[in-house]
Known about the structure:
The structure holds three protein chains of three kinds.
Chain A: H1 7-36, H2 44-62, H3 65-89, H4 94-117, E1 128-130, H5 140-144, E2 146-148, H6 149-167, H7 169-179, H8 181-186, H9 191-217, H10 228-238, H11 243-265, H12 274-293
Antiparallel strand pairs in A: 1-2
Chain B: H1 2-7, H2 9-27, H3 32-44, H4 47-72, H5 80-97, H6 103-132, H7 136-156, H8 162-167, H9 195-212, H10 214-224, H11 226-231, H12 236-260, H13 273-277, H14 280-290, H15 298-319, H16 324-339, H17 341-355, H18 370-378
Helix pairs in contact in B: 2-3, 2-16, 3-4, 3-15, 4-9, 4-10, 4-12, 4-14, 4-15, 5-6, 5-7, 5-12, 5-14, 6-7, 6-12, 9-10, 10-12, 14-15, 14-16, 15-16
Chain C: H1 2-24, H2 34-46, H3 51-67, H4 73-82, H5 94-100, E1 104-107, H6 117-127, E2 133-135, H7 141-154, E3 158-162, H8 167-173, E4 181-185, E5 196-201, H9 203-217, E6 222-227, H10 232-248, E7 252-257, H11 264-276, E8 281-284, H12 290-298, E9 302-307, E10 318-324, H13 326-338, E11 346-349, E12 356-360, H14 368-383
Parallel strand pairs in C: 1-2, 1-3, 3-4, 4-5, 5-11, 6-7, 6-8, 8-9, 9-10
Antiparallel strand pairs in C: 10-12
Helix pairs in contact in C: 2-3, 3-4, 4-5, 5-13, 6-13, 9-10, 9-14, 11-12
Amino acid sequence: MSDFFTVSVLVATLASGIRLATPYLLAALGETIGQRSGVLNLGVDGVMLLGAFFAHWTALETGNLWLAVVVGLFTGLVMGVVYAIITVYFKAEQGISGIGIFLFGLGFSDLMFEVKVGTPKFTTQLPPVEIPLLSDIPRVGEALFSHSLLTYTAFLLVPAVAWLLHRTTFGMNIRAVGENPQAADSLGVSVNAVRVKTILIGNTMAGLAGAALVLEAKVFQPNLTQGLGFIAVALVYFGAWRSPFVMAGALLYGLVQATVIQWKVLGIISRQFSDIAAMAPAVLTVVALIVLAGRVQAPRALTKPFERH
Amino acid sequence: MHRIVGAVVPLFAAIAAFLCAAIILLFLGTNPWDGFTALVDGAFGDVNSLSQTAVRATPLLLVGAGISISFRASVINIGGEGQIVAGALLSTVVALQLPDVPRPMLIPTVMVAGFLGGAFWGAIPGVLKAYASVNEILSTIMLNIVAVQFLNYMLRSPLIDPREIEAGTRIPQTERLSDNAALPTLIDGTRLHLGVPIAIAAAVIAYIVLWRTPLGFRLRAVGFSPDAAKAAGIPVKRSIVAALALSGAMSGLAGAILVFGSEGQRLITDGTSAGFTGSAGFNGIVAALFGGLHPLWTIPSSFLFGGLLTGATSLQRVLQVPASMAVALNGIVVIFVVSSDRFRSRVNTALAARRQFSSATSDEPVDDGTDDAAMAASS
Amino acid sequence: MSKRNKSLWRLLAVLLALVLVAAACGNDDDAADTPSDAADNANDTADTADDDMADEEMSDEEMAAMDDDEMDDDEMADGEMADGEMADGEMSDEEMAAMGDLSVAIVAPSAVDDLAFTQSMIDAVAALGIEPQVTPGTFIIEEAATALRGYAEDGVDVIIAHGTQYGGSLEEIAPDFPDTTFIWGTATDTMDLPNVFAYAPAADQGGYVNGIIAGALTESGIIGVVGPVEAGDAVAYINGFEAGALAGGATEVNIVYTGSFGDVALAAETATAHIANGADILTGSAQMVVGAVGVAASNDVLWFGTQANQTELAPDLVVASQVYHWEVVLEQMLEQRANGTLGGEAFLLTLENGGLVVEFNDGFDLPDDVRAAADAAIAGIIDGSIDTGA
């Protein structure tokens, strides 16, 4: 145990936790916006996989990482259009249509990978950007201020999303639509337009999350996300639909994972119990859901398609 | 007119999926006709492939019928994967404890164990939803993760085949389970085993429970309007738990059938749930939707999707088209089916119709009258 | 009335869907010929170059399948005569030609070009001049069983079940097809089945050699290992590597099994953690290690490969790879099959029989004394003076 509490290991664990938290955070923030308007998107994992594959493919073909990021975003946007049509126009059951998106993303990204790339190929990595001055802070600077631009983006989006939801008219509309669409509608807010926008934003961020994941790993593999998108959806509940708490959840998740890895490296966790350790985050989430369930109110119109009476 | 439009939904979804498949095949440089031929041949071409398809359809049917049950109570169960695992684990443990019980007793015992394992794992999100207002979509997904990690742990430590430890290979699998628990093959030389009729019977029973028993009436009443149900004196909370427990039980039974109808006659994992379940927990949702979330219609529907899975394997074998195409097609089918107007309007009309009924389980509401005809047609 | 209508429409819809399905196979309604048809199709696409050969072979096979007879010498002789041209490959003698005449199929858990487990087997079969049919990516065990059975029904002569986890299924399938040879690995026993061959690499041997080199090259003395699930040949490799590295001068070998064959991100993060913990050399096994190799490349940390030559993943940093040459044992198995022995023997790939080869990366400047130590270790393992501890 003593090995763990050395500065360099703690710093490395912190940095690793932040890196791991990035895709969760990007996807969960997008999902937060969507859920605030009353739309549940369970297809995040599928959208991430598609975003990841197309970003990876672009990076391989062009060598241009920023173009890859844009393609990831665009892939998310396209899936957003699809999801908006399904849930807003056709008013489909959201819990299940998300599973459709997930299955499509899982299958199609795998198919495309096998046909177009096939073998593991490395792209270059998004270079870490050292923030001047801050990254010079001994130890802490290394952990906090030497990440890729996408990681900073993810964390900067936290206050941005809070601001969007609570300080702008659009945000007010989002919350109104998510809480009481009938009332919002009677006040002249177009419920469907608001929801389409939040869906597009949410899916675009899921696509970005996929790009962030694959450009960090540098290599794509079928089912790269391993269910990460589902955890991101859970983190929204975990964070009670508030971006700072969502961030806390994502960080907790990332740090727990990073700590487990470090403990395995240092031999603190015996190999036998590593599966039990792997259960911990999911159990933790369920416990958090139970604890929060009585105390936090979900957007009242969540998962309910809007029908004008 | 509206109804006629609604009724062609499965056909519409099927055509859409076929068109998508054709486009994908063209894109892969494969003649779509050859592709479909290989797919259909692999799925329905002869007795062997038909029985293979039936076997692949079995877990889809059970999960799908279970989802139909929970859906009727307005509970969405995405925990099929975890419930399959739970059922498989409990039935495996039971079989390991009772290797010498004669076959006529052991098979029912392990099936019941699977049923109970799944029921337990399904009841957890049920209790959480009923008594702690925890969203069941999320809790079922989380419990999927917990279940598969627990499976990994069990298969790597307490339940691992002692031979694997001896040999040092440590494949996470149990020893070969008692032959007395093996589901007997129905047609020699094929894979068709007793699990297939068990699943069909379970789906029929699910139908009967839903539409011919007080329990089923309560579940549906809660699904249509919890407030009205409560006002009518129906225990809403217990009904929600029952819906998820029953739904999970069906998946758990699927888990037991997967173990005791498997080629290897043992429980084995590759570290993911899909390695054991073949993603039946998700694919069962597809089959259920295609079958209109009706236990009886899920029977032909799951057979079709079982065929897609078997066919995709043979498509890969024969034409080297990645089998992941089947997964993508499943997603497309879900998207088309849930987008269809019928799905929504059916529930809505049912809702409106149901509100006019106050009691009496024998009442056959307008919208579900079709089920009698369905029964007649399928028998 | 409306009830009836709706029910009727629904029934029609499902029926039509089924008809659509049936229509798609309209040209192929003779169920009796189906297996050979499918096999024909397969061979046509897989093997267009040898079309003629494939046809003749198929007709023989069809006969065999119909008679339900054991493959006898007559047929082999037929095949041999028909396919003299096969010999224009690497095979020269007549027996080899007969061997090349066998149809071979592979069922494997990961992608065809995974630069690891699956690819190594496909390359090996190709090295024998045979173009196999392949069903890759069958990590779902029941799906693999379906594919194995499907090939057997198609009349394929030799079916390679390339995954230890397929053993349980094979135990049930192999007895149903007594005329088919099943080759199962990695495994050390044939489950007492007369038509099953087994193969396994003594992965600890190459692991030990890799370890010796790593132990000599490490400056920090700390080496990190990224493993998948603690099972199969990964365990052998890693245990051998650990023993070699400690014997070679490393002070600490940290082994992490991530618990997943597929989680690239987890493998990458594990590699990062190793480096943070002072490791200056990494190795690992299974298909998700590409994530770890990527991290090694970003951090200029040396990498040791196994299963296949991983040099192309990181041309400057891969020191050596233990490569499986399955063809060494495959050749023996196929020869036996060609001579009428359908199975019953387990083969081991070793440094001694050339089934395992430690391939050095020419792009990496390995000091002469380290190379000498590695060669000495190889010699020591071959003559038995070194125990890899596995």
